[in-house]
Amino acid sequence: MENLTSPKVIREILARFGLEAKKSYGQNFLIDANILRKITGAAQLSREDLVLEIGPGLGTLTQGLAAQAGKVIAFESDYQLLPVLQYTLAEFEDRVTIIPGNFLTADLPGLCAGARADAEAGALARARTSESLKNVKVVANVPYYITTPILMYLLESGIPFQTMVFLMQREAADRVMACPGNKNYGILSVTVQFHCIPEIVADVPPMVFMPAPKVQSVILRLTPPAQPRTTVKDEGLLFRLVRMGFAQRRKTMINAVQNSGSWPFSRAEWLAIFEKSGLHPQSRAEMLSVHDFAVLADAVHDFRANCQ
User: Fold this and answer.
1) What is the mean pLDDT of the chain?
2) Burial level of 47, CB count in 10 A (0-12/13-18/19+)?
3) How confident is the model at residue 163 (pLDDT cuts 50, 70, 90)?
4) Predicted pLDDT of residue 122
5) Are residue 114 and residue 243 in the same domain, yes or no?
6) Crossing angle for the helix pair 187-195 and 170-177, nearest 10 degrees?
7) N or C end of the chain: smaller count of CB under 10 Å?
8) Is residue 121 very low, low, confident or very high in pLDDT (cuts 50, 70, 90)?
9) Which residues contact 298 (CB under 8 A, 6 or more apart)?
10) Separation CA 5–CA 55 (nearest Å)
11) Is the pLDDT assigned to residue 295 strictly greater than 80?
12) Residue from 264, 257, 228, 258 nearest 240 by CA
């Protein structure tokens, strides 16, 4: 198995296939085995895990995942890297499936269900049920330029992920971790924190990549809580309010929702809704916690139901 954290090996592979790192794809290849171990360690992998990887690149992280997980499905949008992955992952061909194309258009529920069914059929054929895939995890060195769309797509997919571990730009992680009142707090913060508990596992300097990016990176782990962090009667309504509030983040929340025209409520009715929620009508979205948005969504839900 090629040592894909070796700069010399990476240069040889790129030369063999006539390739170079593409800035348009956000390709920065990991060259530090210690960081690789921290990523796979944060995911706490076992043979019962189905792992989704986005942007395998040369297969560096994929090798580490396949050595520990039951199955890896890796999504690669750069078609020129497909023969490279076939070469670097030959040892794991029975455990790794490469899906060419855009991850953001993938049928994740269908792929996960299919992988689990195949694993169960194989285990039954060998009279061994221990190899069934019980957990779905995401582990990826995320291309920096599409970090937010990837996170939103995963969180909105409806798949019950056990954990997600990302190597990502520090700036994006700061938006995930941001609290109300922080300039980085926004739609991504609320969405992630509604679904998961975010945790920065380690800082990652530019020098561990080839070529080295001009930004700092981190390993971020997202773990669904054992019990919901907050409950809401209509999740879709909650995120409609979040989008409205942050689309006009300098406006007060009451003005943002009333001006949207989404509901035929008068100013007095909106004031009554805010009063019921216990929120000040002059609050801005950037000052509202995830729980505040949930309470407001429930107040809108109940008022709308009473009007019908």
Assistant:
1) 91
2) middle
3) very high
4) 56
5) no
6) 70
7) C
8) low
9) 232, 233, 234, 277
10) 16
11) yes
12) 257
Closest listed residue to residue 142, CA positions, set 108, 101, 173, 96: 173
Find the length of the chain. 308
Q: At residue 147, what is the residue type?
A: T
At which of 164, 195, 223 does a domain end?
Answer: 223
Q: So what's the pLDDT on residue 126?
A: 40
The range of the structural domain enclosing residue 278 comes to: 235-307
* Cβ neighbours, 10 Å, residue 32: 16
| Residue 295 placed within a domain | yes
Taking CA atoms, 104 is separated from 147, 154, 201, in Å, by 11, 9, 26
| Parallel/antiparallel/unpaired status of strands 49-54 and 96-100 | unpaired
Residue 162 is given by DSSP the state S
- Residue 134 has which token pair? 């019980």
Percent of the chain whose predicted confidence (pLDDT) is above 70 = 95
List the beta bridge partners of residue 141.
167
Structural domains of the chain, count: 2
Q: Which residues pair with 138 in a beta bridge?
A: 52, 164
Query: What strands lie across the sheet with 96-100, from one edge to the other?
Result: 96-100, 71-76, 49-54, 135-141, 163-169, 217-223, 197-204
**pTM for the full predicted model:** 0.90
DSSP assignments along 23-41, one per residue: GGGT--EE--HHHHHHHHH
Please tell me whether residues 193 and 269 are part of one structural domain.
no
The residue type found at 124 is L
Q: Are 293 and 179 in a shared domain? A: no
Q: How confident is the model at residue 138 (pLDDT cuts 50, 70, 90)?
A: very high
Q: Considering only CA atoms, which of 222, 297, 306, 223 is closest in space to residue 262? A: 297
Distance (Å, whole) CA 17 – CA 66 = 23
